[in-house]
Amino acid sequence: MYGQYHANDTESHLLILTDKMESEKTEKSQRKSKRARNRILKVVRRTHMYTGLLLLPWVILFGISGVLFNHPEWFGPLDVVSKFSNRDLKEGYSLVLPDAEKIADAVVAEINGDGGSGRFVRTGGGAVIEGAIAFQANGSSGAATATISPNGHGASVKRIKSTGDDGESKPGFHGSRIEVAEYDAKAYESVAKALLEKAGVDAVASIEPNRRGGAEVRFQIESPDDGQKWNVVYGLVSGEVVARDANGSNGLTPYSFVTRLHKTHHYPDRKSARWFWTLIADCTGFTMVFWGISGAMMWWQIKPSRVIGIGGLALAAVIAGIVFTGTISNHTFGPPQKRGGQPSAKGSDGPGKGKGKGRPAESSPLNPVLSRGR
Asked: Which of 67, 127, 169, 182 is deepest in the core (most CB within 10 A)?
């Protein structure tokens, strides 16, 4: 009897000891897993913080310049001279705003011909007017533009601010074209044609050099007469030589300085400060994605804020979906645009081909509406 009791007691102790060992093993594994998770989160937090400090100048610059793109009159090249309300336009100039519906109906009627009895009918909702109507002129105090809203938002007159280099002297060779034997354009053209054929591109016409943003030779020269130094740029493709006073104004305003940096993209053909700028811009872009992901990870660790955070994320997703799709729909409503903002009509077999009597509007830096596609 005693032996049986002792055996049962021993077995119970062994079970309790085994359970305790298993429990300690599980707790140890959990603590180890928690420590590993905490180490990962610590690395994420530190990376989030220090990359923010490291890239702070670029984040601030991209933020400021992004706002300035929408407000060129803030420290920018445009100076608002006058503003007019819609009432001013009606009472002072008897201006009648265009009716989008009537214009659309008239265009359809013209497309169909014979007074509007044709195969095309309007669909897809009401007609709207996008953009403003702008006219430009050169005044005694500089170039200016008058912009009128066809949607009843008034009008404004804006003047291009002088950059301070309008009267800068130019050397006699400025704007001339020079061909040099050291650059064999025909040889490069022949190689480019061979590369296209090697890649399986069958050119339907003779290939032409791309003159926009082509290679250029940059160097500095000094005048033997007065010692004046010139920064010279020679276009390899165009053969044009242009120059700027090395000690003169570069024409940059605070607005153009930050916006030009913002728009600097693509890796140049050689490593320079601009190459590293593009590299850091890439790093900033990838880091901003990381900030979003790491911020969400850190938010999820704060349990009391999860419900509110989920609501915020859902609201952000809905707003982003509406704004993104609406903006893309606005951009893609018409035909694809060429550089410079004008839609391409080449090869179009759409309605009314060959009937157009108007002429395309000219894009210009003075016209913020027409130049937006640049």
From this structure: 127
